[in-house]
Every structure is written in structure tokens, then in C-alpha cells.
Amino acid sequence: MKHETAIQQAASAAPDGLPKPRIYWAWATLMVGLTLAVIDGTIANVALPTIAADFSAGPAASIWIVNGYQLAIVVTLLPLAALGEIYGYRRVYLGGVALFTVASVACVFSRSLEALTFARIVQGLGAAGLMSVNAALLRYTVPQAKFGTAIGLNALFVAVSSTIGPTLAGVMLSSLSWPWLFVINIPLGVAAVVMGIKSLPENDRSARKFDVVSAILSALTIGLLVTTIDSAGNEINSSIVLLQAVVCVTAGVLLTRRSLRMADPLLPLDLLRIPVFTLSICTSIMSFLAQMMAFISLPFLFQVVFGFRPIEVGLLMMPWPIALAVIAPLSGKLSDKHSPAILGLLGLVIFAIGLALVGMLPEHPSIPDICWRMAICGVGFGLFQAPNNRMMITSTPRSRSGAASGMLGTARLLGQSLGAAFVAFLLSQWGVEEHRIFSSSHPDLRCSPHLSASRALGADFIHSFGENRQITCTRKQISLLQSPKRWSI
Hints:
This protein is mostly helical. The protein has 20 helices and no strands.
């Protein structure tokens, strides 16, 4: 009876969001969890040499402290989003934060590399829980008219968190041992759980059962897709890469066949029948691909070719995330009042122009030459991200917010993986030590910003096409989703 009452209250309150001051506590809970998950994706990178030395381990083994965390997130985002639709976003989020916090305790007390790696994988599973339903819970927390603003603030926290992670780690490691990197998660995680219990909203729940088979196939497909791309970029034995690719494709085909026969599949192919959603997903993948290509290749360009010191390279990269953090909340607020499709398209055009300008840097650029170009990239990406995410989530029925939220995170991670793999492939083919990849006579990877710009322009085309289809889509999407027709292969 209490459960039914809670669901009815959630349904009636959902369109207008939560009342004050509960809305502020719920929003703070979501931002604390998101910040912890994003920071922990980068905070351990700086400590890898120290951790490897403590455990007498090699670089290849210690890198799994980072890879295990990221891979756990990638393979479980969609299954956990489906769990949120069935058992409640609130439960999945709180469970994710609790698991993340417990795993952080395990990281602190790990006495071997194997134990630390396992704890990081569990921590990644907890991070996936809170990330998979973050946007869905936000949709039930804030009023519809303020959803774009909330998404923009989400982007702000992600940008700041990803930027300060390595810096925070460097400051802490200058006077503390590496376990302290994980100690800071514990009080914040406990606070997030306590605040969440009191403030997070309930949501309407799906009557379907959790599809274990689809969850396994989804994990295999996405996990092997990422590892296959990574292996190909790092010149792993070709037979291993081929085997990974074959298993990935097989699992993907089986998952697709299974999903097409379901009304509410774990892999949300039903949402892909909504043109705006599909085009927003594709645009997101391509834009994050372009961003990651730039993030990985530009430090090589600045240090190897232009001769800047590592500390200067770090400072030269800063204008991008700073500009993004400033613009993202503004673009989110604008998307509540103006067409998110037009704002997103404008952002991508500016992003592509910024990348092209970086690619046209002179042979001996000054620091201001680089900084203003990087700031343009950040402005463009910040102007694009929040409106695109808003359009992606709000184009779906409220009951499928969890699946949309899971796809949002998956698109981001897939784009980043593709971008990293593409740059790794270029590096493996032409190398860094010979400077050929950046030289004017062999501009193979000096043109990486131009390649990124071309992908951003491709995203422009997709986004502009989506703008033309948006009105038509919104008239048809509900009838499409409610259609009894099932697809099959």
C-alpha cells in the first residue's frame, strides 16, 4: 500500500518537479555522486607510478587500476539503467553510491595490486549505478521548464571534476600517501546516501522483469567493442583482435535480435525509432570522438613539436574545460527558452571552427595564440552539450528516462573510446619520437585537430538534419512507441 502511494505521489509530482527545499537537497545529492564518479575516473592516473612502485608491479599491470574502473562503468550502464526502470531510479542511485563508498574503503585498505584492482572494478560498478540514472532522476527532480538549466549544470560539474582530478591528486600526493586519494570519497559518499534517502524522488516503474540474458549480451557487446578498438589501436596480436571482434559482433547480433522482439528492451531500440533521439545519440558520439582526439593529440603537439614543458602543456589545455564550464550552464538555460537544436548546431559549428584554428597554429605559436583557440573549442562544445542532452532525454517518454539516461552515458564513453583508439592508431603507425607525426612535411597527426573538426562538422550535419525532423518526430514518437508492431530479423 505504501509502495503504491509513493508511486502515485511520484507520478503526480513529476511534471512540476520536487517542492522546495527538497529539490535543492535532491539536486545536491545527484551532483555529489556525479562529481565523485567523474573525479575517480582521473584521480588515480597521476598515482599509477607510485602505486606500481609500492606493489613492485609493472606499468602494464598497474594500468588496470584505471582500465578496470572505466570498463566496469561501460559494460554495466545499460543494464543498471534497465534496473532503474524496474526497481526505481532512486534505489539504483543510492545502491550505486553505497557500493562506490564501500569500494573506496576497500581501496584504502588494499594490500596488493590484485586487491586494489578488484576494489576499483567494484567502485566502477557503483559509479555506473549512479551515472546510469543521473539524468533520469534529474528529470523527476526539476520542473520541465528548468530541465535544460539542470543539464547545463550537470555539464559544468562534469567539466570541473574531470579537470581537477589530476590536479587534486598531484597536490595530495605531494604530502600524503596514495590511499588518501580514496579516503575523500568516504565522507562525501555517506553524506550523499543520507541526503538521497531523504530527498530523491520515486518514479513510475515498469512491470517487466529484468532480462539477464540481454544484460550479459549487452556487457559482452559494449565491453568487447571498447577492448577491440583499444587493442587495434595498441597493435595487439591481430588474431586476438579478430577473435574479440567476432565475439563482439556475434553478441551484438544476438542482442539486437532479442531486443527487437521486446516492447521495452534493455538495449533501447524502441527509443531509436524516435528520430530526434537517434540523431542526438549519433551527434553525441561524433562530438565526443572529436573532443577525445583533440585531448590526446594536442599534448603531443604542444610538447613534442612546439617545445612547451609538461607543466605549460597542462596550463595550455585549461582554457578548453574552463570555457566549457562557463558556457554549459548558460546554454542549458537558453535551451529552456529557445530551440535546443539550433543552439546545439551553433555550438558544433563554433567547436569545428575552434579545432580548425588549432590545426592552423603557426610553427612557433605564443601562449595567447594557443589559449584563445582552445577557449573557442570549449565555448563551442559547451554550447552544444547541454542542449543536445536536453533534447535527447526529453524526446523520450518519462517512463523510459532510465534507458535514455543510460544511452546518454554510453554514447559519451563510446565516442571517447573511438577517439582514443583513432589517435592511438595514428601514433602506432607514425610514432612520436621521430616528430614525423607533427612536422609540416609529414602532417599525419598534426592534422589531428583537422580530423577532429571534420568529425565535428559531420555531427553538425546530423544535428541540422535532426532539427528539421524534430517537430515531425514529436508528433509521431508516442504513437510509434505505443505501436504493437514488433520487429524481427
